[in-house]
Amino acid sequence: MRLRARRCEALLEALRAASSATAALSAWARSRGWDGRILARKLETATRPAPEEVARLLEVPPGEPIGFRQVELASGARVLSRADNWYAPGRLPGAVNAGLCDGSIPFGALVAPLEPRRQVLGVAPLWKGALQDWRELTPPQALFRLSAVVTGLCAGQRMPLAVVSETYLAALAI
User: Fold this and answer.
1) Contacts of 23 (CB under 8 A, 6+ apart)
2) Nearest-angstrom CA–CA distance, 97 and 92
3) pLDDT of residue 137
4) What is the DSSP code (8-state) at residue 155?
5) For residues 148 and 9, what is the distance between their CA atoms, to the nearest angstrom?
6) pLDDT, tens digit, for every residue of 56-87?
7) What CATH number does residue 98 fall under?
8) What's the pLDDT at 102?
9) How far apart are the C-alpha atoms of 46 and 63, rounded to whole Å?
10) Which phi and psi (to 5°) does residue 77 adopt?
11) Per residue, what are the HEC states of 21-68?
12) Residue 156: phi, psi to the nearest 5?
């Protein structure tokens, strides 16, 4: 179990340091000999109203639309994470918005030209063994949940682009 706990700590460190979850997961997958191409699979396409806190973090004026996308990120057949992503479509180029609606490209890859940065808001362990030494034999499906604000360059200014809530899964601790 100590090995899994160390892997989870290393993963969390990589996620905190990376410009996007996509970049961190791609590097993590390659380091394990997995497919480094991370694909997004839509889980929910219906618009979900943004909680008040999300709108505040995005710094969007009242009435400005906020997009929503729920996806799982996968390396080959391995599902690595699930994410709820609220984003400010008015700050994104048309090609990025189209990719969010139509494609399997992760948000981090789509906004890469905008030089994204993540500010981690919090991490919630979902399994005691994920972030500490715990003797549980079988980890649950989910290891921890991370929330973050993603900023990027828009019209020469760094602005909030998205608020994400990402749940990282047991496949990552293998």
Assistant:
1) 108
2) 6
3) 47
4) T
5) 17
6) 999 999 889 999 999 999 999 999 999 999 99
7) 3.40.1410.10
8) 80
9) 19
10) -85, -10
11) HHHHHHHHHHHCCCCCCEEEEEEECCCCCCCHHHHHHHCCCCCCCCEE
12) 80, 0
Closest by CA to 153, choosing from 91, 66, 67, 65, is 91
Residue written as token pair 């410009």: 19
Task: Give SS3 for 151.
Answer: strand
In this prediction, what percent of the chain has a pLDDT beyond 70?
Answer: 88
Does residue 133 surpass a pLDDT of 80? no
Which range marks the domain in which residue 28 is found? 2-173
Q: How many domains does the chain have?
A: 1
User: What tokens appear for 83 in the block?
Assistant: 């994410």
Side chain identity, residue 111:
V
pLDDT tens digits along 144-167: 999 999 999 998 999 999 999 999
State pTM to two decimals.
Answer: 0.88
